Amino acid sequence: MQFKVSEFGLKDIVNLVDGAKLGPVKDVYIDLETGKVLSLVLSGEKKYFRIFGAGNDVVVHWDHIKKVGVDTVLVEVESVARAL
After folding, report:
1. Mean pLDDT throughout 45-68?
2. What is the pLDDT, as a whole number, of residue 24?
3. Which of 7, 23, 50, 57 has the highest CB neighbour count under 10 A?
4. pLDDT at 56
5. What is the set of domains in the chain, with CATH numbers?
6. 73 Cβ contact partners less than 8 Å away, ≥ 6 residues apart
7. Residue 42 bridge partners (DSSP)
8. SS3 sequence, 51-70?
9. What residue spans of 1-84 are helical by DSSP H?
């Protein structure tokens, strides 16, 4: 299966553990030597009328991604790692 990295921004990221939407894809980490995607960086929660960022970004490693669908990416994470 092939797709553009830019298409991730159009998909909902849903955690299979609790059914929660984790936020839109903000960035992608790629191994420059192999060209493989290492992880997705998701925008943290918003507060203050959903304008200003409230928390850190969420990092989901590629091995936690279970299915990439047309509209949704299913991930399975027990605890969400935060980017620094």
Report:
1. 74
2. 87
3. 23
4. 74
5. 5-82 (2.30.30.240)
6. 8, 11, 12, 13, 14, 40, 65, 67
7. 25, 58
8. HEECCCCEEEEHHHEEEECC
9. 48-51
Q: How many CB atoms lie within 10 A of CB 71?
A: 7
Judge if pTM exceeds 0.70: yes
Token readout for 84 is 């620094």
72: number of Cβ within 10 Å: 13
Assess whether pLDDT exceeds 50 at residue 82. Answer: no
CA atoms of 66 and 84, how far apart (whole Å)? 25
What is the distance between the alpha carbons of residues 76 and 63, in angstroms, rounded to a whole number?
9
